[in-house]
Amino acid sequence: MSLFFQQLINGISLGSVYGLVALGLTLVFGVLRIPNFSHGALYMVGAYVTYFSLTSFGLPYIVAIAISAVVLAGMGVVLERLVFHPLRDMPHTHAMIGSIGVLLFLTSGAQLLFGADFRRLKSPLEGSISLFGIGINQQRLLVIVTSLVVMAGLYLFLKKTVPGQTIEAIEQDRVGASLVGIDANRVSMMTFAISAALAAVAASLVAPINLISPTMGDVVNLKAFAIIILGGMGSVPGAIIGGFALALAETFGSTYVSSDFGELVGFLFLVVVLAIRPSGLFSKGV
Amino acid sequence: MSNRVFRVALGVIVLVLMSGLAVACGGGGGSGDGGSGKQTVNIGYSGPLSGPAALYGENALNGVKLAVDEINKNGGVDVDGTATEFKIEALDDKYLPNEAATNARRLAQQSETPVVFVPHSGGIFAVQGFNAKPPTEFILAAYSSVPEILEADNPNTIMIPPRFDNYMEPFVKTEMDKFGKKLGLIPTKSEYGIQWTKQVTAEWEKQGGEVLKNNGVDYTSTTDYASPVTQALNEDPDVLFVGGPSQPTALVIEEARKRGFEGGFIVMDQAKFEEMETFTDKKNLNGSVGVFPTIDYPGPGTDQFVKYYEEKIGGERPPTSEVALNYQAMHIIAQAMADAGSVDDPKAIMEAVDGAAGEIKDEYRPYGIDGMTDDGHLNGPVIATQVEDGKYTELKVPQDQ
To answer: Chain A neighbours among B 340-359 (CB < 8 Å)?
Structure first.
């Protein structure tokens, strides 16, 4: 039983990271209809920004995460202006190719600037606490709590504030939203900013339990795509639930079946969902 | 495109990308120039220079580079009266066997490289398919410890590092005697990791131990190491078999210690203690067996090599055996060319390697290699290590026959 709870905690902490990354991806897709393949690269850059804020400037961990989110939000806006805005009236494929270009640029750029070395971010929370007889790493608890706070914050922002509602409006009906005076440009930039900031927060949270390297975003990127296809592209609850579902399936799949199965299970899900319900589990029928 | 078709198409793209999302980059070209009394010979290299294994690839390449710089600075080697300098042509293969094969072909044909270094077993096997056949024969300097490289019976292959099957007996014996008979498995799931796992499992059982469930994960694509470690520890092992690239290996070891594991570790030779030390508290490594850190290796020229490395490359990266052994191998090959009196006759050069390995200056020898076996393995006394109270003590490893 203790194994079950340990793995449950592991699965939930992994799921909250997946969820955060997938949220950013699904928001951009909802508003701009672009599958942003460079999302994993933004995640990677976010981890480096946190790393250097911590090691070069000696800032506290939480402040470093906030700085990383702000820097990446800025980067998101720049990307939107430089790459995706000029491609807005082109066919979908142009923006897709553009995003792959950004991915390659950022990954190679990071290797050039920072080298291929792995880096380790030391967590300020080294200890573990005991809960119901099982030891939980404090960093993992921080991952879960922070992710939930960020997710809740995002939800409130989208539902309760005017700028948030403009995002939802554009998602639902671009032309209609423009007719009532919503500036689609502003919303696009805002969406990219939020998306990149979410990636930065996720990467900064996961960095202490993993390693930072120029290619750290590749796998997460693919998983995030699997999650949003699973949950319905553009769907916010779909991304969150899909994230937890994938992580738990992976963790328990490898615990109770085999480790190969754990790696396979997410994509098995994906194939099944595509076959039975191609629009995704939580799609709003866009 | 309707939305449904679009999504399905996207799903398919994601699945395809999953099978190998890689960053493309490359470069190359160059020429070998023969002048009066002086020539430059190209040396080929194909290894991972981008992607998750880029660090490893850079280390291997740095080894060759250090040797080439040193040779050129000293005016080259004398091959049949001609001062011969070297130039490296390096291509990125992203760790992929097929790319390594394409690169090796391109290097041999376009850059006329008589020798190509390949630092991974998949690429080595692919290149062994054609490097000993006309029209372009060339020598494959193979940096991988997989013993099957020798079984290919390829006359133009030089296998550089100690073969990993030699580690099995002493590693298993040391750990079993010290900690107990139950072995848990959390190795990386690369081709190489799978071979290691098979051999270590067989040896552990041969010596009368019990092998538990395999909880291996691909170290380069795993986001969270906690889950496999939790599973492995659930079966209460005495010893854990771990390994993959050094840095993730350090995290796996640390995770196990954090969860209260007090047994020993058998560490795959891909992971290096000197690199792991910089990623985790050295205390966590106590009770492990693995390859001896290069910095303290009792080789004839280790000290000079480490000093030279720190001068030329330095930084945060310690010199590892990838750097040191490729460095030594390049010196041996240059010497073999001098002894054979040829830079482009693979047969003559291969015949000269055994002698050349013993002839090169001591300062070019961070490791104790002193010859080559008939099947093409650079041979010499090998020392592994056992970590006790933060110290690396020597562990003898049997040699090739």
So the answer is: none
